[in-house]
Amino acid sequence: MKFSTLSPALLGLVLSVQAYSVEYTTETGYFLQDERSTDASTFDYTAVNFGLINRTYPADSHLKKHRNYTQWERFYHQVQKLNEDSPKSVEYKVLFLGRHGEGYHNAAETFYGTPAWNCYWAELDGNSTATWKDATLTSAGIAQALKANTFWQKEITEQRIHTPDNYFVSPLTRTLQTANYTFTGLNLPDGSADFKPLIKELFREGISIHTCDHRRSKSHITNLFPDWPIENGFSEEDELWNGVTAETSSAQDVRSSTALSQVFFTSASSKKEAFVSVTSHSGEISSILRVVGHRAFSLSTGAVIPVLVRAERKGRGQKPVASSSIAWTASAHCTAPPVTSVSACVCPSSAVPVTTPLVTDL
């Protein structure tokens, strides 16, 4: 059963019994972002080698003595050694979790303020100057993605970093654009995997009643990036967004766990494909971090966090299937601009909150 073939009521969630389960843990001590002392609000991944800590590894003793290895080369060798020495039921992967650059919905939330945005403006398709339904990148968002591109090339050239073996991307337009600006045109090392990200429904943003979470059709996505593969079972229209019900955090974590189970233990060579890029969203990345046991770490638009994850498969089944039932929730909103929203949203007395889709003429 695939989420992408289910309605929100079913996705929220009537799920089958697992054939096997996967237990995820974060291997700490490798990245500054793992440490409580690192302040997420001021952290710049481009200033500190993606956050990779300058340290020695147990696997260093197996390296050739006559060569000068960079920190990223030694770390890659450490991950390889962890996979080589682990049983078949255990895999280690480095997830490069990248948040999309600034979208028009981000700019609109800043303009209107978060309370007013959440209770009214986010339920519209846009205003007289901008559209934020399945928002595209602003010029600032494009610049943030290009900054990531420049930094990746710097790491490739100077650190000889191992580039991702697999790329995944959310189907929302802002993430598709971000992945394209970030990875297109890089001078990849010989033998590297080509940048052709798999578009996956389950790596999308938390599904709320906001129109920025309403993805475009499969045909539209194909027209934007015709060379990029789309996962099997991806529906033509968005069957998960209805403008009425929203995922709870628990429901999103179930979805994120299912998405990760489709990244780990995928083939006989899965252990060798240890570096994975996921271009997604702030809410979805927060959910992934919860699932893998990483501390909360909020990303600014366009930022990237690498995480070393240990996955252990439990059970003898052949396929992972989510095994929980988590209800979604209805979200109330104003039917006219709020009277005030300094710290909370107050609807006009003539526009009491409703839980039906908001339809209005702009």
UniProtKB/TrEMBL annotation:
State the Gene3D superfamilies in the record. Phosphoglycerate mutase-like
Which Pfam families does its entry note? His_Phos_1
**Signal sequence coordinates:** 1-19
Q: Which CDD domains match?
A: HP
- Please verify whether the record's keywords include Nucleotidyltransferase: no
Q: Keywords of this protein's UniProt record, alphabetized?
A: Signal
Q: Which GO terms describe its molecular function?
A: phosphatase activity
Can the keyword DNA repair be found in this entry's annotation? no
A single GO cellular-component term from the record reads: cytoplasm
Q: Which InterPro entries match?
A: His_Pase_superF_clade-1, His_PPase_superfam, PGM_Phosphatase
Q: What is this protein called?
A: GPI anchored protein
To which species is this protein native?
A: Penicillium argentinense
